[in-house]
Amino acid sequence: MANQDIMRELFITGLVNAHAVEKQALSIMTPQVERIENYPEVADRLRLHIEETNGQIARLDEILAGFDTSSSALKDLGLSMTGGMAALTHSVAGDEIIKNSFANYAFEHFEIAAYKSLLVMAEDGGFANATPLLKQSLGEEEAMAQWIDEALPMVTRRYATLYAEGGSGVAKV
């Protein structure tokens, strides 16, 4: 197998994996945003990032179509189910908003790493047409991670205040 064929295979595998990860992100964020009541800023930013994530999926589909391939439906389903389970697990905890903030922060950094890796493969494999699309998705992930980082003090303080007021509304994320 020629080096170019190997790079193509690795790049496509990375794209399919990133597609599955974005589907997983949707399965994590969607139930979260539906439950949020006491943190409208978080709900608004999650809604925006859900829109961005749908755009990221479309961009990955566009790149994959250029290789006459598509995402793996089975991989997408498996990862979206695990994402849904993670969101469900946090929903029974009184500190759901805090745990979701930690998990979302970590997940954003996982996605950032995935896009950075894809950009290296695009450069090394000569797939320059994918670079602008991948950079756009990377920028959105970096912006979301930064927003979570900057919002964490507010979320933590609001949670502590609600808890101190007798827990009213704490379970209502």
From TrEMBL:
This is Uncharacterized protein. InterPro entries: DUF892_YciF-like (IPR010287), Ferritin-like (IPR012347), Ferritin-like_SF (IPR009078), YciF (IPR047114). It comes from the Bacteria. It comes from Sphingomonas jeddahensis. The lineage of its organism: Bacteria, Pseudomonadati, Pseudomonadota, Alphaproteobacteria, Sphingomonadales. Gene3D superfamilies: 1.20.1260.10.
